[in-house]
Write the structure tokens for this entry.
Amino acid sequence: MQKQQLQTWTRRGTMAAGGLAVAGVIASRLRLRAQQNSNLPSDIEAARQLVGDRPLQHGRVHLELAEAVENTRAVPLAVRVDSPMTEADHVAAVHVLMPGAADPVIASYRFTPDCGRAFVDFRARLTDGAALIVLAVMSDGNVYKTERTVVAAPAGDG
Amino acid sequence: MAATRLNVPRQVATGEIFTVKTLISHVMESGERRDSNGKPIPRMIVNKVVCRYNDRVVFEADWHGGIAANPYLAFDLRARESGVIEVAWIDDDGRTYSERAEIRVG
């Protein structure tokens, strides 16, 4: 899609008299598009280190997290990713991040086709109001993302 | 010595997907706390969990300070053949704790 647009813009560029100016516009538009694709707060260097600058796609990743967390020191989290889990097409890794924490990475899980299903269940220390980001890296390199805000139950509840 | 637990079904049909449930009693000191004198308490966590199915690595976890104390971990495996499921937990001091369970497939 980017290539197609680039070709269109390039064609327009050759028709335009001020070719250089147009090229500048193309470059800045492509930069903007790249930023939109990344869809990741630029301060999460940790996420970049984990998945690079690949565009993040939505869907396929399901995060189970209580609507109101009772105990933020041990929050049950479950992640499921839609995948056939075959040699040719499986989930390679799932990364769980909480931007803003001293260490923004909570966990990375490596899956193989032997897992049969991409599922993991664990307990984390989370901060009320923090964003929780789950990135799933597929065997073909595509990255899917889901995000939720952590909400602690009011004290005295339950 | 950390107490560890590994739970897998004893018998599974070939090709069936089953859940491996694990638990280790560990303080999981995050490295972000200070003691009563204001001195930082060094991080001491289980930073890696490796699961082998008949000596083949099938699932791994890299853990950071945000994992809760006494960490529970569950994941799935597909029953290929009878044999041994082994889970190893490795902490910041390089200590390894491991647990094995036999599974009958067929």
Summary: The mean pLDDT of chain B is 96. Residues 28 and 45 of chain B are 4 Å apart (CA to CA). Chain B touches chain A at residues 17, 19, 30-32, 53, 56-69, 71-78, 80 (CB under 8 Å). Chain B is about 0% helix and 55% strand.
